[in-house]
């Protein structure tokens, strides 16, 4: 993972699209009601890379994923997938949100939910066929939920629900997966199994961006993005997982620059 | 339309009038179409927790209808439809604007917007040119006897459009309703779908105005769909049931209104509510009825197994196997014991006369299974759960009915041959 200066190999569009990083985030800034959540975030993720995003609560991790997906408005900056805009790559990107605001009484079975991962590629009038069904069943097997295929989603535990959503993302067979705390509420054995699954995905040159709270598993990631509104550190895990960087990320001590900005903001719109 | 309606007044005897002239079937068919369409659309409304939106749209179409009336200077159905669509979409857009650009929560935003539009409509009515008469009562309560051929056609077209849309876009609509965030991430047009839904509801509401009026049309949107929601585990079933319940409410409501000489809108709503209440009672998962049936069956099953075991024990100890002994030993009433024995005989688990009951071979096997399960569980409780041996019996009395686990218990305990009381455990 190389940050700002991506190697400028050539300008030819073909070469650009094959050589372009899987995800390229340039100077992304997001503010909510005048309060910045992300400040000028820049990083690249290469194909087949497994990158972990860490940072304290409210650091803007979920916001970053939403911004990358174009689900929140950017106040500046740009995001590219394989050198193209998100709108042209939606099918190739799967997303598992941190908390699903779904109605657990919604009349769907586990298999229905997982099959929804295929809807992006079905097009407008498409109906899921046998192949889609097969894919959904396989994805459920991968997360160890094949015994629950016919269950209604209401009858699942929190961790199982999380695994079903993961299966839906897998079912999408996307090249890029954005997972927002996929291990929240998942037991240790399953977490281990899912990490193995993720390994297999990166072996297939799929790219994963995983928000994670558990500092105990940092070494499982190829590289890390330490975030606290801005990028504190970004690079290969063995290089940047240092005491100093973690302290700067989680320390909560604002830099003078941040404090100045905050002071100016308070003058502008006192709370 | 409104001018002719203006002549009809709210005299109770009027309600049965249309049924004597030839108009009955038009009101009936239109109402059924309205009911079915509302029932299907209502599923989306209910699932997306937008119940208030139904209320909002039905009221907010008023200014649209009045403006259309003013602009076209007639009561043509097409003008009214466009007025309603415009008003409906304006409502949806305004609600969005208010809730996204201020701290106002969505439900408050809905309340603010639709009451404002309704008020605007009222002001517009009072400023209509002299000579025109806009019957507000008709708008609010509906007058199905005024339903004519154009209304029927309009509703038929709307129903067809809704049906085709739902069938064609079934899958994307399902995902958007279930998980709008992920749907948006996959590139599905979540907002476009929202406005499409708003448009279809506005159109249905305005077409259904004459049959139920704005106040009650909300019930047709929410109640049948909510009844369907209680009953099914599949989205397609819910849509189908919602439509059927809606149509049924309309049809039965119209007939009921005729029979008891009551206004048809309210009686449709009452039928819908009755269906909802029945669905609540009868729902397989939450329903009171199903739950008690399940519990009753389970208890019955356990008692049957207890009786089998009792016969086995009585037989072993050479005591008479009559109904009285069985009833007292397995702690069931005489009547119950008799019923259970009858059932056992039917299943060929017992044979012989009243006081000389015998287990058949199959019955013997079942009884031994119970004994084995009981003693294994006793051993398990004593060994693995560290329970004193004098207490294990009562708990095992319950656990023994989980005999499908007996083999596993057996394995876990290393195939014991005696239970904590020193009794032999039959081999499985
Ligand atoms: N919809 C919103 N409106 C206003 N502010 C928001 C909104 N969503 C998030 N925020 C604010 O933006 C900041 C970043 O939020 P975000 O959800 O991205 O944090 P996070 O790093 O994912 O935290 P966590 O570890 O708790 O998941 C927080 O201070 C939060 O209060
Ligand atoms: Mg988060």
Overview of this structure, please?
The complex is a heterodimer of chains A (271) and B (428). Chain A has helices at residues 13-19, 61-68, 110-115, 119-122, 130-142, 158-171, 188-203, 237-240, 243-250, 256-268; strands spanning 23-32, 35-45, 50-54, 76-81, 93-96, 176-180, 207-211, 223-228, 230-236. Chain A is globular. Chain A has 271 residues and is of the alpha/beta class. In chain A, strands 5-6-7-3-8-9 form a 6-stranded mixed beta sheet, sandwiched between helices. The N and C termini of chain A lie far apart (40 Å). Chain A is built from 10 helices and 9 strands. Residues 1-17 of chain A have low confidence and may be disordered. Chain A has one domain (19-268): Rossmann fold (3-Layer(aba) Sandwich), CATH 3.40.50.300. Helices cover 34% and strands 22% of the residues of chain A. Chain B has helices at 2-7, 17-20, 24-47, 51-72, 77-100, 106-126, 136-141, 149-168, 170-178, 180-185, 190-231, 235-260, 264-282, 288-316, 323-329, 334-346, 361-383, 389-399, 406-412, and strands spanning 350-351, 358-359. In chain B, helix 14 crosses helix 17 (361-383). Chain B is built from 19 helices and 2 strands. In chain B, a hairpin with a 6-residue loop joins strand 1 (350-351) and strand 2 (358-359). Chain B has 428 residues and is an all-alpha fold. Chain B has 3 domains: 21-220, Orthogonal Bundle (ABC transporter involved in vitamin B12 uptake, BtuC); 290-359, Arc Repressor Mutant, subunit A; 370-412, Diphtheria Toxin Repressor, domain 2, CATH 1.10.60. Chains A and B meet through strand 5 and helix 4 of A and helix 9, helix 10 and helix 12 of B. The site of magnesium ion has 4 residues of chain A, from helix 2.
